Each structure stands twice: as structure tokens, then as C-alpha cells.
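U., I forgot to send this yesterday:
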Amino acid sequence: MSSSPLSLPTLAGERITLRAWRSTDAAVVMEASQDPLIPLLTSVPTTSGEPGALAFIERQHNRLLERAGYAFAIADPDGTAIGHIGLFLIPGGSARASAGYWIAGSHRRQGFASDALNTLTSWAVTLKNLDRIELCMEPWNEGSWRAAEQAGYEREGLLRAFKRVGGQPRDMYMYSRLTRAVV
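Result:
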């Protein structure tokens, strides 16, 4: 990726909008903090209070400033934040990024994750100097890997004991999407 400053666009999907996080989005972060897995796998706080939620939102803004990546709130048709999706740059000149996403429990099973990942990916493949986007998820998380497959990601394999979750080694599926054809 270039050394120019990162800029967060607003992206429109079929049913969702990807936009910058706002302090008024704290409620969805507080809901996600009560999920048994989201705080284990992400930087969502493990406490449900507003100060922790606002700190999470501030960290998302800092990702741009630190050139670490792009963090979006996923907003429903009414503009209410219902989740998070990000494209995180892998350092070291690798021309790779990873994507991650979560939907608050009260908004799952409505196709929002798939729409958000399709929207993010359609934009990300246009970025210069980005060759590959990676996703890792636990094999039991069928909703997440189905969303990845619907967005054109291919499962590359099972990475055994790839990540510790709650202090325990967990297997992860590796998915990827290339941004252009390999010659």
C-alpha cells in the first residue's frame, strides 16, 4: 500500500451501508460485549459499559491514523449500527490484508454479514498494491464461512491450532480472495 494517508469512504451495499463509527453507535458495541465470542476474537471490550464502547469506537478511528486499516460500522437501512467490518493491512510489504466482521446477536441471520463482506470486498479489490484478502474463522462458524463463500472467497485449508481463543488453541479455516488474476 502507498504511504499516502488512509481515507475511509462510505460504501453502499444492497441493504447495508459501511460508514465511519460514531459515538452514537455505542449501544451495538455494548450489545456485542455481551456475546460469548465477539470479545474473545476481536477488540470489543468484555464489559458492557459506555466508556469501553466509546474506547472501542476511538480505536476504530485510530486504525486509519496508524495506517493499520479501514474499520467500518455496518449500518442497517435505517442507519443504525448493527455490526463491524474491517480491512486490516498486513505489514511488511506483503500486499495482503485480512478482513474481519461481526454482527450483533439481535441482527444475525438476515444476510447483513454477507452483504457487508460483498460491499467491502468490491471496494477493496480496487485498492492499489493489494493482491490478496484473507479471512480466518473457526470451522463451526458456518454463518461466517457461508458469507465468505457468497462473497467469492475460496477456502484454502484448515490451519491447525492457528489461533488461541479464550486461552485455547483453535483450528481455523483460511479463506482468501485475490484482487486480480495471478500470472
